[in-house]
C-alpha cells in the first residue's frame, strides 16, 4: 500500500479525487496527511475523510530555507512513499526537493514543456493556440521542468475564458493523477528510472 502526503494551496479538487479513489479497498494507495502553505479550503476534504492536516505559512519563517525545513519535517513524520504537490503554489527549496526526489510529483494545467509556471492556463489562451493539456511531472529545481510522467491534450474552444478552460482541464488532471498513483503503486511507472534515464 502506497502512502501519500498531499500538499495543497487552494480548494483541493485533485486531493478530493485521490481521497475518493482510496475509498475503494482495491485502490493501492492511501492519503496519510494533507499539508498546505496556508489555511487552505481543501483542508475541508481532508477533514471529511478523517485525514490529519498541517500548515506552514512562509511568512511565519525568517527565510524560504527554514520554511522548507519545517515542511520537510512535517512530511517526514508521516514517512510517505510519495509526496504530491496538487495546486501547491510555492516553490520548495532545493534541499527539500533533494530529500524527497524522485518520489515528489506535481500536477500542472498545461501540456509541458508548453506554458510552465503559475499561469499555464492564462498563458495558453494568450498564445492563441488551439490546444493545451494537463501534465504530471517529477519535481526538480526548475519551474515545471522535471521529467514528464503522464500528460493528455485538452482542446481550447472558441470563447474559452481562463475559468472555463481551467474547469475543463481539472477533470483531466484528476484522472491523470489517480491513474499515475495507481501505476506507481503497481510498479508500472518507475520514478527512479524516469528521473535517471
TrEMBL record:
Known EC number? 2.1.2.2
* Top-rank taxon, per record: Bacteria
BP GO terms, sorted: 'de novo' IMP biosynthetic process
Domain annotation Formyl transferase N-terminal: ranges: 4-181
Keyword Transferase annotated:
yes
Q: Which Gene Ontology terms cover its molecular function?
A: phosphoribosylglycinamide formyltransferase activity
Q: Which residues bind N(1)-(5-phospho-beta-D-ribosyl)glycinamide?
A: 12-14
Q: Which UniProt keywords apply?
A: Purine biosynthesis, Transferase
Pathway annotation: Purine metabolism; IMP biosynthesis via de novo pathway; N(2)-formyl-N(1)-(5-phospho-D-ribosyl)glycinamide from N(1)-(5-phospho-D-ribosyl)glycinamide (10-formyl THF route): step 1/1
Catalytic reaction list: N(1)-(5-phospho-beta-D-ribosyl)glycinamide + (6R)-10-formyltetrahydrofolate = N(2)-formyl-N(1)-(5-phospho-beta-D-ribosyl)glycinamide + (6S)-5,6,7,8-tetrahydrofolate + H(+)
Q: Where is the signal peptide?
A: none
Sites annotated Raises pKa of active site His: 144
Q: Which CDD domains match?
A: FMT_core_GART
Positions annotated to bind (6R)-10-formyltetrahydrofolate: 64, 89-92, 106
Cross-referenced Pfam families: Formyl_trans_N (PF00551)
Q: Which GO terms describe its cellular component?
A: cytosol
* Active site location: 108 (proton donor)
Q: Which family does it belong to?
A: Belongs to the GART family.
What exactly does this protein do? Catalyzes the transfer of a formyl group from 10-formyltetrahydrofolate to 5-phospho-ribosyl-glycinamide (GAR), producing 5-phospho-ribosyl-N-formylglycinamide (FGAR) and tetrahydrofolate.
Name of the protein in its database record: Phosphoribosylglycinamide formyltransferase
The species is Lacisediminihabitans profunda
* Upper taxonomic lineage: Bacteria, Bacillati, Actinomycetota, Actinomycetes, Micrococcales
Amino acid at each position: 500500500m502506497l502512502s501519500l502526503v498531499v500538499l495543497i494551496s487552494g480548494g483541493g479538487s485533485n486531493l478530493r479525487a485521490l481521497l475518493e479513489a482510496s475509498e475503494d479497498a482495491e485502490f493501492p494507495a492511501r492519503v496519510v496527511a494533507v499539508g498546505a502553505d496556508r489555511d487552505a479550503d481543501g483542508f475541508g476534504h481532508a477533514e471529511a475523510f478523517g485525514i490529519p492536516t498541517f500548515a506552514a505559512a512562509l511568512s511565519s519563517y525568517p527565510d524560504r530555507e527554514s520554511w522548507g525545513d519545517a515542511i520537510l519535517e512535517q512530511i517526514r513524520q508521516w514517512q510517505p512513499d510519495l509526496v504530491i504537490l496538487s495546486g501547491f503554489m510555492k516553490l520548495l527549496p532545493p534541499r527539500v526537493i533533494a530529500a524527497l526526489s524522485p518520489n515528489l510529483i506535481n500536477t500542472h494545467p498545461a501540456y509541458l514543456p508548453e506554458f510552465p509556471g503559475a499561469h499555464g492556463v492564462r498563458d495558453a489562451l494568450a498564445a492563441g493556440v488551439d490546444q493545451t493539456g494537463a501534465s504530471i511531472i517529477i519535481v526538480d529545481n526548475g519551474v515545471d521542468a522535471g521529467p514528464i510522467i503522464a500528460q493528455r491534450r485538452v482542446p481550447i474552444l472558441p470563447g474559452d475564458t481562463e475559468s472555463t478552460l481551467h474547469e475543463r482541464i481539472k477533470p483531466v488532471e484528476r484522472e491523470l493523477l489517480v491513474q499515475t498513483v495507481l501505476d506507481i503503486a503497481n510498479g508500472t511507472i518507475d520514478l527512479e528510472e524516469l528521473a535517471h534515464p
